[in-house]
Amino acid sequence: MMNTNPQQETLLIVDDVPANVSVLLEFLTDAGFKVLVAKDGKAALKKTEQALPDLVLLDVMMPGMNGFEVCKILKSKENTKDIPIIFMTALADTVDKVKGFSLGAVDYITKPFQQEEVLARVNNHLKMRKLQKQLEEHALELEKRNVQHRQARVEAEQARNEAELANRAKSTFLANMSHELRTPLNAIIGYSEMLKEELQDEGLGDYVPDLEKIYGAGKHLLGLINDMLDLSKIEAGKMELFCEKFDLATLIDEVESTVQPLMGKNNNLLSIKRPPQLGEMCTDMTKLRQMLLNLLSNAAKFTENGTICLKIDRLAEENGFTFTVSDNGVGMTEAQQQKLFQPFTQADSSTTRRYGGTGLGLAITKQFAEMMGGAVMVQSEFGKGSAFTLSLPCHGQAIPKPTVTEAKPEEEKLVGEGIVLVIDNDIAACDLFKQTLSQLGYAVAVATRREEGLQLANKLRPDAILLNTNMPEGWQVLSTLRNDSLLAHIPVIIESLEEDKQRGYALGATECLDKALVHNQLATVLDKYHIGDKSRCLIMLVDDEVIQLEAMTMMLETAGWHVFPAENGQVALEHLEDKRPSLILLDLNMPVMDGFEFLNHFHKNEKWQTIPVIVLSGKNLTVEEQMFLNQHVQARFNKTAFQREELISQIHGLIARSAAVREMHKEEVKKKIW
What we know:
By secondary structure, the chain is α/β, with parallel strands linked by helices. It is built from 21 helices and 22 strands. A five-stranded parallel beta sheet has the order 2-1-3-4-5, sandwiched between helices. Helix 4 links the parallel strand 4 and strand 5. The N terminus is likely disordered.
């Protein structure tokens, strides 16, 4: 027989009948297992302590100490309690089988042995134990990270409170100081203008240049004070938008007229490129004017004897504009670009010494743009110039700051949680299953025909399916379920006769139960496969490409997660409530409902706000789509060129952070209740 177990897992056979041991020893050794033998319970306990086998095949009837006593002792010890135990019983020993399950055994095999069945059960339980170990290690790692996140959250909360207090004090100080400073400054500016006019009238023009310097210094200082006040209002969340309709061409003409004197200082030329018909915008006109003046004045300051261009373009489908200010001035290095948009920060100290300024203009421009639903981007090359692009929607509205919504206390859940689909042509059996499973807390759907069963499986995507293969076309139902990429992950438990079990396992059944014992064993089996257990880190994978769906499912399951596949956004929305995934992997191009429409519906429901979303798509995104996704998803990956390790790492991090947020909400709710 071919060696199918290259990792040499260790099995312990406990049986006092040499013939039984010989049969098992021969084909299990040929299958690649390392096999140990014990002829009685006392020897079994000793060998188990010494070797810690991966699985124990345990006979029930033995002299001295029977199999039940051995099982009870093994399950009571910390170092052996997790070793899977499969009892070996005679065909008619139904009482022994039930007692074995109650003591903690995972399965049983009947005598005389069927090699294929024994191998299938042994391999299945070894695989399950290996997966269980991985899940436990993953759970420990998550718990460790959760502790770290909770500690970091506490520290961050303390720092945030301190920062808010300092920020409020700073804002109050700046508001008071700005009032105290602007009053005398306005007087200085006003008197300098009056004196300039009087001196010119009296023919004392020699004094005019000095007064112009006083006037210019006063205006500069007043602008700085106004910028500081704007920044403090933005940081305190008190800056408001006043959206109004206006003709964009008129605003551009005003900006051009205002900025022309600045261009002349360094002998620069201003070029404006715009479509013949710009049309109207509905946004905060004052702030848009201020942003354009900030960008143009910056370009004029860092360019000498050059050309500065303002280019206005209307975005696709007429839903926004881009304003690009480019120059052929000094440009910036990559290191200098990293410091942009930070308050009171310029490219470097040499820039400040040579060109002056505070760095507030770009910081305010960026904050205004984000408030108005837009963005600012920069491209620059040292020595060749820079280009700043401001993108804004046609119809602007204030983007509110994110607020933490109050979590509602969750209702108490029944022990058995999840959906079970029963497919059986026996109406009385369906009623009995429905009654039994409902008492355990499961939501139960029943189907008495093949077509109805497959239709409900596709509609409900249950957590488990209980199938009677003796009904007409029952085996075809099992085959169809196992060959459908959207349903193949669902555990299928078949109720069958002894002679049909091998066929059931061969066709992919998760578990085969005797018809006579199905009601006694069903609760144990459902618990064994964690049916409906929402703590298992379920990932919802939304993609219409079957090959991609299968490949991603395999990758995620190998990494230790459970996967719920959905072929479009509509199916995903229908199952969010009952599946409650820990994370969503979302494609954008899909029939029925694409990723964008799904996100629109998804973010309207407050209870789903803590579920992180990762977009996995090869679609070329427009600026508007990128802006939309930036507001609604936590990460994006190229569907055709992502790094597996990076995606897995991102998923781990997002699930951990999401769990931490939910934990924080629960703690806040508890505090409010108390």
